[in-house]
Amino acid sequence: MKAMVLERSRTRLVPVERPDPVPGPGEIRLRIEACAVCRTDLHVVDGELEHSKRPLVPGHEIVGIVEAIGLGVDATRMGRRVGVPWLGHTCGTCPYCRFGAENLCDAPLFTGYTRDGGFATHAVADTDFAFDLDPDADPVALAPLLCAGLIGWRSLKKAGDGKRIGLYGFGAAAHIIAQVCVWQGREVYAFTRPEDLDVQHFALSLGAAWAGGSEEAPPVPLDAAIIFAPVGELVPAALRAVRKAGRVVCGGIHMSDIPSMPYAALWEERELVSVANLTRQDAATFFPVARAAGVRTHTTIYPLASANEALADLRAGRLNGAAVLVP
Ligand SMILES: [Zn+2]
Ligand SMILES: [Zn+2]
Predict the structure, then answer these.
(1) I need a labelling partner for 32 at 20 to 30 A (CA). Which of 146, 160, 212, 315 fits?
(2) pLDDT (average), residues 155-174
C-alpha cells in the first residue's frame, strides 16, 4: 500500500510504501476510494492535539470497498462500500458507552489520530465502526459526510429546534448543515471572515437567508448558533447574536482561547455547549437525512500524493466546501 505519513508534528507528510495491512479479529481492510480532509487533520499535523500515534496516517473521512475481513467479521461485508469516521473504536463497557454516549468513551480509538487513517490506498478499520454506504453514489461526494456531515449533524441536534440558525465558519461542515437546515425549513445566517465575500456568496447560493462578517450583528436575533471555526473570539460574538435562552454550540475539537467577556453576554439563560466526536446513532440518523435533503457536497479533488497541498489550501481558506484525496 501507499500512504502519506506524519512522522513528527509540524512537518510535511511523506509518501511511504508498506505491505498491505492485515485485518485482525473484528476488523476489515478497505481499498480506499476517497478520503476527505478535515480541519482536525490540521490540528493533528500541527500538534495541537496531544497523544497522536506516530508515525501516523491521518484522515478520518474514508470511503472504500471491503476487500479483506478478519476473524469473526460477517462475510457478507466483503465487496461492500463502507465509510469510516473519526470514532474508530469504543470500549463498550465504560459508563459513557453503557448509557448512550459512546462519543465520550473513556478508552476510544480515533481514526487518523490514535489509529492509522485514510490518507492511503488501504486502511484497516473496526467493522462495527464502518457504515454501509450507497454503492451507486459518488465516493468523492460521500467522503465529507463522514466527519463534516456527522459532526455538523450532531452540532445541529445540540443546537435544538429553533428556526434561525447561525453558522460561524462556512467550511465543509457548515456547507452541508446549511443544506440540511434549508431542507428542514429553517433560516441560515452564515458568518465568515469579513473579507471572504466569495464564501458569503457560496452560503447564499446554498440557500442561506443572510451572510456577513463574523463581527456583524445578524438582522434578527438567532435561536441558536454553531461555531465551526477554531476561533475563540467567536464565542462572545455568537452569544451576542442569539436571543434570550439561545444556545451557542462549539462544534470543533480545538479552539483558540475564549477571551474574557462580561457576564451579561451569558445572562438571560443563554447557553454555551460543546460537541465531542460522534456516536454510531448519529450516523444512523444522519445518512437518511442527507439523502432525503438531497445534500450535495462541494469538493476539490487532490491526488493522494498532493495531501500536503490539500492541507495547505484548507489552512489558507482557499477551499469552498471540502478537499478530498483520491488514491
Ligand atoms: Zn473531522
Ligand atoms: Zn467506553
Answers:
(1) 315
(2) 97
Query: Which residues are within 5 Å of ligand 2 (an ion), measured at CB?
Result: 90-91, 94, 97, 105
Ligand 1 centroid – CA 147 distance (Å)? 5
Burial class (CB in 10 A: 0-12, 13-18, 19+), 318: exposed
DSSP-H helix ranges across 130-252: 139-142, 148-159, 172-183, 197-205, 234-241
Q: How far is the CA of 244 from the centre of ligand 1 (A)?
A: 31
Which ligand number lies closest to the CA of residue 40? 1
Q: What backbone torsions phi and psi does residue 145 show, to the nearest 5 degrees?
A: -70, -25
Average the pLDDT over 92-104 and give the result: 98
Q: Which ligand is nearest to the CA of 101?
A: 2
What element of type H or E holds 194? none
Closest to 325 (Cα-Cα) out of 169, 120, 182, 42: 120
Strand ranges for 193-266 from DSSP E? 210-213, 222-227, 242-250
pLDDT at 50: 84
- Find, among 129, 152, 149, the residue nearest to 141 by Cα: 149
pLDDT value for 51: 86
Q: Indicate the pTM of the whole model.
A: 0.96
For residue 6, report the distance from its CA to the centre of ligand 2, in Å: 27
Residue pair 154/175 in contact (Cβ under 8 Å)? The answer is no
Extract the C-alpha cell encoding 255.
479552539
